[in-house]
Amino acid sequence: MSRPRSLTGRPVVITGAASGIGRALATRLSRLGSPVALADVDEDGLKATAAALHGRVLTRVLDVRDAEDQLKFAAEVKDWLPAPLAAVFNNAGVAVTSTVLDAVIEDDDWLHDINFRGVVHGTRAFLPILVEQGEGAIVNTSSVFGLLGMPNQSAYCAAKFAVRGFTESLRQELHGSAVRAITVHPGGITTNIARNARMRRDPEGLGRTKEQMAAQFEAMTMTSPDKAAAIIHAGVDRGKARILVGPDAYLFDALARITPTHYNAVLSRVMRRPRRTEAVR
To answer: Among the four residues 81, 134, 167, 236, which has the most C-beta atoms within 10 Å?
Structure first.
């Protein structure tokens, strides 16, 4: 199969574009000449992203949980497109921190509706456009937590494993066509996801606040959003079906293969080591 065309200069759709990886992707691809259609539920953040771009931009306040609104957004994008759509990045995501024993069903449903069903809705909304034009990519954000199950992250892992399974199934359905389905597995990226997470209590019983836990998470991250966007862009351009983002992502992937039931002991030792983080602000 021939190498796909580069994303550079071609139209893309990005959800979760108000911050983090979504904003970094929008910034990078717009700078390289791509028209970008951006969506997020955070209107102020979305406006800030759009204001920093210089090329052609379409913005839409969108709750990815709403399947009908995703279809309306896809119709708007289709009318707006200046050229065939190169890729759809279903990137919006949130986090919940809780033990299974203490889990609150409303929190888990909130996460699953965004992290998994939002990806499904976005895929179903935009896939007909790509199939009709005969090329393009659906790029769905999973996580390293879609490779390994982690304590106190049952809802997040369940959703990210589901994104992985859904996208891999779609990939097999698209086999032989020029429409691709790609999973992205970021490791620790320095974004606001931990600060915006839902947490009712410290799941380890240490009395830490959400702010303290967010700071601990950020101290362990290894990749900036800008670096993540560059890796994702390069992976899509190279025709990868699965994109690992960050050195920790390669560790998770290796552990999933080598020690699929005892990886947490290794990770616990690695995560206790001090490390330097990249500047992201």
So the answer is: 167
**CB burial string 127-147: b at 16+ within 10 A, e below:** bebbeebeebbbbbbbbbbbb
Task: Residue 178: name the closest of 244, 90, 239 by CA.
Answer: 239
Active site residue 263: no
Which residues, at least 6 apart from 10, have a Cβ–Cβ distance to it below 8 Å? 34, 83, 84, 85, 86, 87
The closest alpha carbon to 243, from 184, 198, 169, belongs to 184
Residue with the two structure tokens 């993540």: 228
Torsion of CA 65, 108, 91, 175, to 10 degrees: -90
The model scores a pTM over 0.85:
yes
- pLDDT tens for the chain, 281 residues long, are 568 899 999 999 999 999 999 999 999 999 999 999 999 999 999 999 999 998 999 999 999 999 999 999 999 999 999 999 999 999 999 999 999 999 999 999 999 999 999 999 999 999 999 999 999 999 999 999 999 999 999 999 999 999 999 999 999 999 999 999 999 999 999 888 888 888 888 888 888 888 888 777 777 788 999 999 999 999 999 999 999 999 999 999 999 999 988 888 888 776 665 444 333 32
